[in-house]
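re: ur msg from earlier - yeah i can do the pyridoxal-5'-phosphate complex, just paste it... oh wait u already did. ok heres what im feeding in:
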Amino acid sequence: MTRPSLFELENHSDFIQRHIGPTVKQQEEMARILGYDNLDALIDDTVPAAIRRHTPMDLPPAQTEQAVIARLRALASQNVVNKSYIGTGYSNTFVPAVIQRNVLENPGWYTAYTPYQPEISQGRLEALLSFQQMIIDLTGMDMANASMLDESTAAAEAMTLLHRMNKKNRSNVFIVADDCHPQTISVVKTRAEVLGIEIVVGCPEKLVGDTEAFGVLLQYPGTYGHLEDISPLIERAHAAQTLVTVAADIMSLLLVKSPGELGADVVVGNTQRFGVPMGFGGPHAAFFATRDAYKRSIPGRIIGVSIDRRGNQALRMAMQTREQHIRREKATSNICTAQALLAIMAAFYAMYHGPEGLRRIAVRIHRLASIFATGMKEIGLPAQQATYFDTLTFEVGEQQSSIIERALAQGINLRIIDTDRLGVTLDETTTAADVETLWQVFNDGNLPDVSALDAAIDDTSSIPAGLLRDMDYLQHPLFNDYHSETEMLRYMRYLEDKDIALNRAMIPLGSCTMKLNATTEMLPVTWPEFAGLHPFAPVDQTKGYQALLAELDHMLLEATGYDAISMQPNAGSQGEYAGLLAIMRYHQSRGDHQRKICLIPSSAHGTNPASAALAGMKVVIVDCDNQGNVDMDDLRLKAERHTEDLACIMVTYPSTHGVFEESIIELCAVVHEHGGQVYVDGANLNALVGIAAPGKFGADVSHLNLHKTFCIPHGGGGPGMGPIGVGAHLQPFLPSHPVSPVPGVDADNDVVSAAPYGSASILPISWAYIALMGGDGLEQASKVAILSANYIAHRLKSHYPILYTGNSGNVAHECIIDIRPIKEASGVSEEDIAKRLIDFGFHAPTMSFPVAGTLMIEPTESESLYELDRFCDALIAIRQEIDAVQAGKIDAQDNPLANAPHTLEDVAATAWEHSYSRELAAYPVASLRRYKYWPPVNRVDNVFGDRNLFCACPAIDSYREDG
Ligand SMILES: *Cc1c(COP(=O)(O)O)cnc(C)c1O
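and the outut:
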């Protein structure tokens, strides 16, 4: 071996091999087991030659973790963290340290998956249920979901819900109060236009009642700060059969009457200021609360209370069957990934402070606002609002530029509303000294005195009479038992221990790519220079972000082969929507207004048809053949039939069936021939990066789930990011933003998220991943992802039928095992297998998607050969149990599969009345003696939960007795 130079020693990076599970030697062994000389031979035989890239990605070589952190530090230092008074839906907050370290920075929370398997998700389900309870209490509504992507999209979803629900008023008009946040007005307008809903923006006092409208959106308090009793307005609306959505500020609801009390039909808002950093736009959890009558139409995920097979209380996601996978283009919404981790943080913030603590925070904010406003009046600059909570607007005329200059000199950002108005929003972090500084900024001369004003003013005079609220909220013990840090710490640990996240075991979810979320990648998320920025901060303060965004743009363009990127969409579903809008705008720009048909293969993910419907397109399904591939004859037939009105096809590649379809290039050609565009759903990019690029093999646009391929953790159901890559011809139609225009696109373009770059503060994660891996590392990761999936398929194929393979007999980066014939022969279902895997300490694979009665397994490149084997051994052991059932050696009804999962209580109970042993129940393989996960509940009854829909925290006793 040659002696390495000092330079080589210093720049040697272990990261690629830390990220990729199997060692290089194991990779070669695995390839040989599969019958190939080496890994590249497997890839050559699996990926169609026609789509392979000919040039490697133009990315810097892999850097060490230390170098990447140093580079991120340098980028971060280019951001200026001014004190923000910009408001507009985003406020400074103190993230309680105990929550930051033990939730936001804790892989036990952030690496968990969406709680589709309730038995291993009771911890996060309980936290999310508390979030719903908090929202129900503060909004005064009957029920709430958990959660929405941002306030603006929540308002847009409210509009479509009211449009569906208002049977008494079929008008097509939706009124939007002109004092809603500007980003919300834009997002709602975009959403409405393509659905043929007419938006009338104006003063609600003038419009409501006189304008025929199915619904109205009010902001409470208004974006400029005005706070008023909206109940007379709501009454007037209801008298005209106009339904009412109120976008409310969560902090103000601690002091003023809830929109529910005032008569609202839907209440939306954001919980960011409950202990979640602004993060230059996100991520944070928005909320959606409504009346009981609309509960079955509510968008997003709802956590509900059910029972397990012993009759004990157990939580689960309610009405899952109602989600997009079943409803397809008739789904109520396209939301899939939401903001679970951030909803959980907000709920913990409320628990930690409790009702009194929260109220004290709100009272202090309001007191400071009153003192500030009174002082401003003394200065000779009275606020435009007589009644307000925390936000005030000042008409400053010609003084504007000198005030802004003085503010910036003090490190302060004010809200610049127009050429002569400035806005100020106070928050939890504002101090008396800050108020004095603000006075100085507005006035060079004499200053009022905080203490004197504090003694003199009357808090209630700035809140309208009768609008003050009694403390009727958060009385549940959950919000009252955890005010000491010790209790909070233990409660969070208690919940965490109930769940399986990636820090316990492999989560082999097909389609969702649960790979390593490396700690180094996560570090920058909570740095103040990334976490502390307001999304509308002046651009010269966000240079670090701009540089990082530009570099990430380049990286993702290299990976996908496209020409331009939009970072605005907050999840894959939102990327789909933004991409379809770009396609539609492109057609419209060419005069092709009739092009509205969206072809979707029957195997597509449910968000595809749901997004198409949301974009105002009409879905036409294309069949799959019995190999699971898109039926090219049917495709040609339908493309031809719709040659006049074809907008696009949405196709996932490699397919949701886990196969590299040979026909993809021809498919793109056929669609293009008939004037359509090709949308490639990028959820499966983990099989492509470095190997093939959708932008090069014929696609026009793709979303990238950065929380799948690019290492943003799933957070138990969000956050996520769904940027879209597009060809140059679609670039002019990418989303813009009304407050902070996106460089390179028309400021009047569509707007799909509240913030210009979506959940910007998690983008450093993907940037870091790419920098750590380099081009070669990324390509190696894709290859090993394919290798590991084929290795699993190989080990399992004599025990379970592999449903689909490509021409070479190989799968792509995931494989589907078909349980239908097994169920037919033995009575054991895919659900029994999924639940039995819990006894082995595993999270189940994806169940019954994309094919009912199957399990889809995606190992990713990050799982070691040890873990792959452990998982295969578990499934093979389960197959032997199935055989025993089938052979009549174990009881058909009373067997370890039907009764799975087994709890500690099951096996420790005095009575054991089963036909098999306690050992077999709990320790089916010896390795479990070293480390055993105990599910906290038995199998959860889905049907009971949906029939008896209950989505708030259950009574006190049910919590206290389980200690
Ligand atoms: C995950 C996924 C989506 C939806 O993405 P979200 O980020 O959850 O909104 C769409 N299509 C496919 C194939 C997926 O796997």
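cool cool. Residues 336-337, 511-512, 571-573, 605, 607, 652, 656, 681, 683, 705, 720, 722 surround pyridoxal-5'-phosphate (CB under 6 Å). ping me if u need the other ligands too
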